[in-house]
User: Fold this.
Amino acid sequence: MSPANRNAGTFIPPAPDKIRLNRNDPCWCGSGRKYKVCHERMDEKIEAIRLAGHIVPGHIQIKNAEQIEGIRESSKLNIAVLDEISKRICEGMTTQQIDDIVYEMTNDMGGIPAPLNYEGFPKSVCTSLNDEVCHGIPSDKIVLRDGDIINVDCSTIYKGYFSDSSRMFCIGNVSEEKKRLVAVAKECMEKGIEAVKPWMFLGDMADAVNSHAKANGYTIVREIGGHGVGIEFHEEPWVSYVTRPGTEMLMVPGMVFTIEPMVNMGKADIYTDEENGWTVYTRDGKPSAQWEVTLAVTEDGCEILTY
Ligand code: MF3
Ligand code: CO
Assistant:
């Protein structure tokens, strides 16, 4: 029995949108087309799945073509910045220098680094080294050393649209075990991407990610996940990578969210730096790796926007 069947009749998640349109009204998505030729059939399909007991997206989660184009353009800046970092990152560099590149390059292209002043975050990018899981704060005191692994997490606002992606970099001679962690973390993200299909569930994607981490002897961080993105930096849904197949939100065309699992070499447990309130570390001090993409669900799979 699937979780959906088990829930049916006992708990039906509330409808996210209550407004009912007439068929000849302009569609709620802002496309300018009549509702009956735009999203009406999709709404009916989503409603049937909701009545079967599933969590479904609201209209706010479904972007129209113009919005996706805006996020696509923002993503171009986002990856251009990471491409530049990948050319220049090296031993002896400080994480502040990475921040400077992100700040200057994003501004030069007419964008804004989304992390800067976001909920008090003091810098333009997150730089997380070795046992730092995420949200590392760039500093002129942190120097990249031979053997380090580092995640550079770049989030960009362009013409009001948000994009978000991150990559790992290996500095100098990195141990085989850390290299393997970095490679498997990338594969975990790719397995997740492959599992993004309309009318499947975020839990199906999560299970693809988590199974691959487990098969390699690694763990996935539970408390921090991905998120809807595009109109805001962090939108619903919150995206876990440790949930079960057939659970969590239904994926439908037009949803835009991130896949960004944090993969730990040791145990999954984490803690947050009490002094800066941001940097997250592995509890056991073992390394952690993360890759991130922003993607849009399409009619037959997904489009990776930050490639
Ligand atoms: N870029 C992170 C993410 O993937 C968010 C960082 S919030 C910040 O969601 F304030 F630390 F930048
Ligand atoms: Co993100």
